[in-house]
Design brief:
The protein has 5 helices and no strands. The chain is mostly helical. It is elongated, with a radius of gyration of 25 Å.
Length: 141
Amino acid sequence: MELQPDNPYTNRSYPPPSKPNGDALATAAMILGVLAIILCASFTLYPTFILGSIGIVLALLSRGRALRSAAKAKIGLFCATAGIVFNCLLIATTFQAMRTNPQILEKANELIKEQYGMTYEEMINAILNGEEIPYPYNFYR
């Protein structure tokens, strides 16, 4: 390690500043990954995707030029990926249940008609035909 020139205030040599090791990014990735799993378990859709994807990026960035990732980064990467995968599975099973179970589809139609003024089938047909979907009636209240 090469020492810097003498400091005029203390008359001592000091080592050069060290490079950040990415530990803060790994910690942030781990926290966001755990939050993604928690939010997936509480059935919130969008925050899980957002926090999980940011956690994956931070976990990959925390590695820097090193050959291996830190343990915190690996945990963050695993948790963020698991949160996103579980969230996708939750969405897929919900849509599958709506398509196959008439009682669930009827309940969903009631809720969607209450909010949007059109049923689920009408909304899907409007989306497929490129028509505009209205905002929920209570969206701005």
